[in-house]
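User: What would this chain look like folded?
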Amino acid sequence: MRWMIATCTTLAIGAAASAAGPATNGAPIWLAGCWVQQVAQKWTEECWTPPRAGMMLGSGRSGVGPRLKSWEANQILPDADGKLVFWASPGGGTRVAFPLLSQGANEIVFANAAHDYPQRIRYWREGKALNAEISLTDGSKSMRWHYSAM
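Assistant: Here's the prediction, encoded as structure tokens.
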């Protein structure tokens, strides 16, 4: 009888874990989706996959009217110690790591003081809007985006 109770309990716990979905390792699920900022003819788009196996894949592009100005490929994934790292590859160039600096319920900040610019990457949600900011580590030379869902 104890074996049956233990087996049923184990199965129930396993079913509850499966219903919760794949492990996110603290990845910012609220970042997932496609986002756009449009100001007159200038536009910026950013898309993020939902976390799966602890990893999020992102892409971004910006331009003016029909012209592409820049693009990048990004990833958020855990390092060997399980700490999240933002990897940026502007224009398909060499990937640069930005380790997690801080994280809250609706905000995540990554930083790499050894990088020229940016040194800090910050995302945060305000209601349905997604905000992004890049800057030096002290917050100077900041650039901000205010995205709406696509």
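Residues 2-19 form the longest helix (18 residues). If you want, I can go into more detail on any region.
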